[in-house]
Each structure stands twice: as C-alpha cells, then as structure tokens.
Design goal:
Shape: flat
CATH topology of the largest domain: Rossmann fold
Number of domains: 3
Low-confidence stretches: 1-20, 215-227, 232-237
Strand order of the largest sheet: 2-5-8-1-9
Bound molecules: adenosine-5'-triphosphate, magnesium ion
Structural class: alpha/beta
Helix content: 40-55%
Strand content: 5-15%
Number of strands: 11
Radius of gyration: 29 Å
Distance between the termini: 63 Å
Oligomer: single chain
Length: 472
Amino acid sequence: MKNQRGEMVIYLPGAMDEVGILDNLSPREIVTHLDKHVIGQKSAKRAVAIALRNRFRRQKLPEEMAEEVMPKNIIMIGSTGVGKTEIARRLSKLANSPFLKVEASKYTEVGYVGRDVESMIRDLVEIAVELVREEKLEEVVDKAEQNAEERILDLLLPPRPQPTEEKASNEEILKGQQAFKRTREKLRNQLREGKLDDHQVEVEAKTKNMPAFEIISNSGIEDMDINVKDMLPGIFGQKTKKRKMRVDEAREYLLQEEEQKLVDMDQVTRIAVERVEQNGIIFLDEIDKISGREGSRGPEVSREGVQRDILPIVEGTTVNTRYGMVRTDHILFIAAGAFHVSKPADLIPELQGRFPIRVELESLSVDDFVRILTEPKSALIKQYVGLMNTEGIKLHFSKGAILTIAKFAALVNERTENIGARRLHTIMEKLLDEISFEGPDLEQKNVVIDEEYVQKMLASVVEDQDLSRYIL
Ligand SMILES: Nc1ncnc2c1ncn2[C@@H]1O[C@H](COP(=O)(O)OP(=O)(O)OP(=O)(O)O)[C@@H](O)[C@H]1O
Ligand SMILES: [Mg+2]
C-alpha cells in the first residue's frame, strides 16, 4: 500500500488495535511490579492500580457507556521523600500508555511568560508519537535492513548498463548477468561479515542546512500551532548532496532512511492521538505548589490562575496540537503533593471535585528504611556496592550496620526535618565518604561496614544537632 507521499508502506494486521502491556496487568500485578521499587505505600499503589485497570475495563464497554465513564483522578498526599514521585516514575516505565510527569509549578497562567498548561497535552502527544513510532520501527526494521543492504551493494557494485542486443548474443548477456550476481552475493557476504566496513562509498545524503533565520518566540518552537518544525525540513532539508562515507556509516545512515520511508507517519500520529485520548496518563507533581486561593498582588503569577487554567483540561476539553485536535476527557490525572503548608482543601473547589480519590502516603519507619536500603532493585546499598566494585573493592554491609543506618536516618529526620527516604542518601554519602575518596588507593580490597564503623563515622554528627543540620 502507498501512503500520501507515494511511499510504500506495510500495514500489519491488528496493528491498530494493540493493547499496551500495562493494560493487561491486573491491579494486583501492577502493585507487585511497584513493590519491586517502592517500599510500603500500599494504599497509594492500590489506588493507581485500580484507576489504571478501570480504564482497561472501560474500553470493553459499549461505546455509548464508555463515553460516560470518566477517569477517577487521584491525589496522592504525603510528606516529602516518601515515594510519591517514585511511584510515578516506576509507573511510567511500566506503562505502555503515553505517560507524562510534570511539575504543576512550572506552568503559569494564560498571559504570562512561561509554559501554558495546554502544553502538557502537546508534550503527551509528542511522547505518544515517539512511543508508537518506536513500535512501528520495530515492525519494519527487518525490511529496512534488507533495503539498506541492497542499497549499499548498489553503491559498491553499480548495476551494469544493459548491453544492447546487436553487440551481444543472448548467451553472453546471460553469462554476464550471472557473473554479476555472483560478485554481488560475494560482496554481500563480505559486507555481512564486516569486511568492507573500511571501504568508502558515496552516498546521496540529505543536507541539513541550518535555517537562515531564527525563530523568536517565548513559548518555544514546540508550542507553535503552525507546523514550523515540520516545514523546516521541507524548506531546507530536501536537497541532497553526495557525501563520502565509510561503509559501516553508510549502512547506518541508509538504514535510518529506509526506516523512515517504511514507517507511515500518518498512521503513527493517528494511533498516537487515539492512545493519548484513550489511555493517556498525566502525573501532576507538586500540585501543592499551586494551591492556595490568594489573589495575586503585583506581577507574580497567581496560583489560582494556574488552577483555573488546569481545570478545563482535567474536566475535558479539546487541545490543538501539531498532530491535530486532542480530546482530554479520558486522560487520567494523578496529582501529588506534600501539602506541608497548604491542604488539598486549599485548591479551588472545582479542581478538588475533579480528583475524587485521595490517598495518603505514610511516613516511613525504621523498618521501612531498612527495606528501602536493601530491597528495591536498585536499592542504595546495592548502588554503592556496585560503584565500589568497579574499582575492585568488595563492600559488605552487616545487618547491624544497615539497621544502625536506618535508625540514624529516622533520628535525624525526627530531630531536624523529616525529608523521608532522602535522608538515607545524605547519611550514606557521609558514611562512605572516606571509602569513596580512598577507593582506588585502598590496600584492603574487602571492606566490611559493620555497626561499629557506622557508629564511628556517624554517631558524633548525629548526636550534634547543629552539625547534623548542616551535614546530613
Ligand atoms: N517508599 C519508598 N520506597 C523506596 N524508595 C523510596 C520510598 N520513598 C522514597 N524513596 C526514595 O527516596 C527518594 C525520594 O523519593 P520521592 O522522589 O518519591 O519523594 P516524593 O514523595 O516525591 O517527595 P517530594 O514531595 O519532595 O517530591 C527517591 O530516591 C526514592 O527512591
Ligand atoms: Mg516528588
């Protein structure tokens, strides 16, 4: 089949109705996955798992009813460093749905310099397009590789001009053709074995001219409604120029070109927009930073203004993006905030109403700290062991040491400021300060960190409140 630009494209059956990995997971499976990275916080994990599953359920409803089922947006409330952002981060890795994590505080209300809230939808669409494009690339990569190989062979051994009938007999022509084929196959083998990588070939390459003018806009090129970004290659990039390249370079270059030809971008954007509308998730972090209903005095951006701008997007509106209009009705919003100063009740009532599910994250205990230090896939202790191991140092932490670290972290949190699991980072840095510095010069390659060592390195700092305020 050909697309609008007349390029050949391949449509694979079922490509339009594929479902993301995440959508096949039961709530329990989603929680299990999150458990690998985030300790505790059961209710928050449950809430997001249910919300995600509900969208999957919704898609199975008759269209009429599905239209009516609104996403159950969530607010996660919990003091700093207890895993709110971590849950979002892990979810996004798991999600095959387009997923965007943004800080609410980076938006400003309409009319102010800064990012307008609608740009979050545009960003989400960009992410979706990239996601779908990657999937489609995967589907065509074999074909693209074949094509690229043929094109390299054409360059290495240009097709022979056809001899005219009068000069050659049929037999001679046939012989010539066979010889040519043999040479080509020989070259193909050598190419595959990488023996020709050092050879030079001349490739018809698209020139990437820099535009002769600069685009000045305070919203940035990605926000423009007209497709300047798309126009640029059209104006400047279509000229080609012969460029000498190594064969391995040329192969890489031609592969990309072939991939681009084989992926139908119209189809990609169509699927992407649909995915955003049906499965998109936006994680609005730091929502507490825009709460408050004070009228703004002076040139300061009003937080309430930002909330009012966000409202229609959460409620369901249409946003113009460079891939077309996108409806936001069924996008799932998960908001998170520490709400130290403000309360969810300080959000404007309309916005509160759009986030019917509230979950609180618990503050972390000594036990949690022990688990956070050791259990997650890339737990802090594992990280440090790995880092030191690169220099041949075998770091070992005793159980007692880990418990003491956890206790110190809890103690400092209690006495100074509660920064949750982030405290573990500062404590670990301090604890391993000497070993990290001496690392490469250490004679003794086996280092055991036991309770005594932890006490020696940290006790004095932890005991001294003033000191720990600065150092930990
Ligand atoms: N429950 C947890 N399990 C595992 N690691 C955690 C947990 N809570 C926090 N951490 C670790 O602590 C660090 C900070 O956590 P995170 O970014 O999720 O905090 P937050 O809740 O978003 O805080 P803030 O309100 O300041 O944004 C991360 O490195 C994270 O890995
Ligand atoms: Mg956070």
